[in-house]
From TrEMBL:
<dbReference type="GO" id="GO:0046100">
    <property type="term" value="P:hypoxanthine metabolic process"/>
</dbReference>
<dbReference type="GO" id="GO:0052657">
    <property type="term" value="F:guanine phosphoribosyltransferase activity"/>
</dbReference>
<feature type="domain" description="Phosphoribosyltransferase">
    <location>
        <begin position="19"/>
        <end position="164"/>
    </location>
</feature>
<keyword id="KW-0479">Metal-binding</keyword>
<keyword id="KW-0547">Nucleotide-binding</keyword>
<keyword id="KW-0808">Transferase</keyword>
<keyword id="KW-0660">Purine salvage</keyword>
<keyword id="KW-0460">Magnesium</keyword>
<dbReference type="GO" id="GO:0000166">
    <property type="term" value="F:nucleotide binding"/>
</dbReference>
<comment type="pathway">
    <text>Purine metabolism; GMP biosynthesis via salvage pathway; GMP from guanine: step 1/1.</text>
</comment>
<dbReference type="GO" id="GO:0006166">
    <property type="term" value="P:purine ribonucleoside salvage"/>
</dbReference>
<dbReference type="GO" id="GO:0004422">
    <property type="term" value="F:hypoxanthine phosphoribosyltransferase activity"/>
</dbReference>
<dbReference type="InterPro" id="IPR000836">
    <property type="entry name" value="PRTase_dom"/>
</dbReference>
<protein>
    <recommendedName>
        <fullName>Hypoxanthine phosphoribosyltransferase</fullName>
        <ecNumber>2.4.2.8</ecNumber>
    </recommendedName>
</protein>
<dbReference type="GO" id="GO:0000287">
    <property type="term" value="F:magnesium ion binding"/>
</dbReference>
<dbReference type="InterPro" id="IPR029057">
    <property type="entry name" value="PRTase-like"/>
</dbReference>
<comment type="similarity">
    <text>Belongs to the purine/pyrimidine phosphoribosyltransferase family.</text>
</comment>
Length: 184
């Protein structure tokens, strides 16, 4: 789905498909270098990270295993509470593995900070984080993120895996929605 398919629901394109692709090229090169000679397990966080995992992993010049986790942050509306529930756990045993958590976005950082602790306690050799987007709020919680695609303003964004009420995940770009979409 592209901008022209959105009618007047689109407010602004923040990051184009081309910009995403170019940045993922750079991140993949860094990951290739950093994990040279090591096994690598990519852990995608459903559902938002589906496109990031797909497009990032295919840019790697080595094989990487892939697993998925689904979590829900209890909380009201669009703010997460830090209380996280596992909806779907990993299939893989993390013992001795080099784990790279792949996320679509870090907002408050509460979800990732919990996830980092949870996965680190399973005997992994290392656990690092890659996120396509990071909001300035994320600075308020101490989470070490090794790979960041883009720092974005503190606005609600959709596309490239990110949704508003499950809509617009399949946009090719990252954008913001016109106010009338939220109003009903
Ligand atoms: P925290 O605040 O714990 O939450 O870092 C991260 C999760 O919140 C969702 N999130 C968003 N989803 N547009 C979205 O579609 C946004 O702008 C946005 N900000 C946060 C997302 O599920 C993420 O994993
Ligand atoms: Mg969501």
């Amino acid at each position: 789905m592209q901008a022209a398919d959105m009618g007047d629901d689109l407010q602004q394109v923040l990051i184009t498909e081309e910009q995403i692709g170019h940045r993922l090229d750079e991140l993949a090169q860094q990951i290739d270098a950093d994990y040279a000679g090591q096994d690598l397990l990519l852990v995608g966080v459903l559902k938002g990270a589906v496109y990031v995992v797909a497009d990032l992993s295919r840019r790697l010049r080595r094989s990487a295993d892939m697993d998925w986790m689904a979590v829900s942050s209890y909380g009201s509306g669009t703010k997460s509470s830090g209380v996280v529930r596992i909806l779907k756990d990993l299939d893989a045993d993390l013992t001795g593995r080099h784990v790279l958590i792949v996320e679509d976005i870090i907002d408050s950082g509460l979800t990732l900070s919990w996830l980092l602790g949870n996965l680190s306690s399973r005997g992994a050799a290392s656990v690092e984080i890659a996120t396509l987007l990071r909001k300035p709020e994320a600075m308020k919680v101490q989470v070490d993120v090794r790979y960041v695609g883009f720092d974005i303003p503190n606005e609600f964004v959709v596309g490239y895996g990110l949704d508003y009420a499950e809509r617009y995940r399949n946009l090719r770009f990252i954008g913001t929605l016109a106010p009338h979409v939220y109003e009903g």
